[in-house]
């Protein structure tokens, strides 16, 4: 019965979003989404999400300086930097390498770099989380990834790359939205929205149980907390936050 309701409501939602489906069929939506819509939307929504998640992020990144390398420097790589909303949480002198699969965030990124001159920006790489071949193995002290694992093609390949580029004893920090409790209304709506949401928001998957991927990855130590960062009318809830040590 629930499955039938999900399919019916999915069809209704697809009907409402038919222009997007049509543009996608014609091959117009993807490039427009990557260049214009997604960067614009992400900047708007990340403002709201930032306010809601700020205290969680401050708490999360508090022990970043503990992972400085033997040289005393902290070399940090961020996967899916977007426009750089995490820069404010990084410690002074931190050497940041930014990566994103989408090069169209430059405007917001430059603005945030100017605002946060307490950091050294090493380089910006156009790269997917699953393929960080431009980054040498064992070359960074920390990897950061927030609201990105929902849209990578392969979570396990991305986590393998994270572990490859981290030095032994380095840490991977994450804050991600995940699937809700299966018996909940939120999960019901996540299933309803899933196909249309994924199309409209550049491959974002609402029902990933990312804590399972993290538990399966080969971290020597893993701290995961299930938290709530509720945004009204958004099915991206609940969240997990924490870090894993290589």
From TrEMBL:
Gene Ontology molecular function, alphabetical: S-adenosylmethionine-dependent methyltransferase activity
CDD domains per UniProt: AdoMet_MTases (cd02440)
Keywords from the UniProt entry: Membrane, Transmembrane, Transmembrane helix
Domain Methyltransferase type, first and last residues per copy: 77-174
Top-level taxon of origin: Eukaryota
SUPFAM superfamilies the record matches: S-adenosyl-L-methionine-dependent methyltransferases
PANTHER family attached to this UniProt entry: METHYLTRANSFERASE LIKE 7A (PTHR45036:SF1), METHYLTRANSFERASE LIKE 7B (PTHR45036)
Protein name: MET7A protein
Organism encoding this protein: Loxia curvirostra (Red crossbill)
Gene of this entry: Mettl7a
């Amino acid at each position: 019965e629930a499955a039938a309701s999900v399919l019916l409501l999915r069809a209704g939602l697809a009907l409402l979003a038919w222009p997007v489906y049509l543009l996608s069929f014609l091959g117009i939506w993807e490039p427009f989404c990557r260049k214009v819509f997604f960067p614009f939307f992400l900047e708007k929504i990340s403002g709201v999400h930032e306010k809601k998640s700020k205290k969680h992020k401050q708490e999360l990144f508090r022990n970043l300086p503990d992972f400085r390398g033997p040289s005393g420097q902290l070399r940090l790589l961020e996967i899916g930097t977007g426009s750089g909303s995490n820069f404010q949480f990084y410690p002074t002198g931190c050497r940041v390498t930014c990566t994103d699969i989408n090069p169209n965030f430059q405007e917001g990124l430059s603005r945030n770099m100017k605002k946060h001159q307490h950091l050294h920006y090493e380089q910006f790489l156009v790269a997917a989380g699953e393929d960080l071949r431009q980054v040498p193995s064992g070359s960074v002290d920390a990897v950061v990834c927030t609201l990105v694992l929902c849209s990578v093609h392969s979570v396990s390949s991305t986590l393998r790359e994270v572990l490859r580029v981290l030095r032994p004893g380095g840490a991977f920090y994450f804050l991600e939205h995940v699937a809700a409790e299966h018996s909940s209304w939120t999960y019901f709506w996540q299933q309803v929205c899933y196909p249309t949401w994924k199309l409209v928001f550049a491959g974002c998957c609402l029902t990933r149980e990312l804590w399972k991927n993290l538990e399966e990855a080969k971290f020597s130590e893993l701290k995961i907390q299930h938290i709530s960062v509720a945004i009204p009318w958004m099915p991206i809830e609940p969240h997990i936050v924490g870090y894993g040590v290589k």
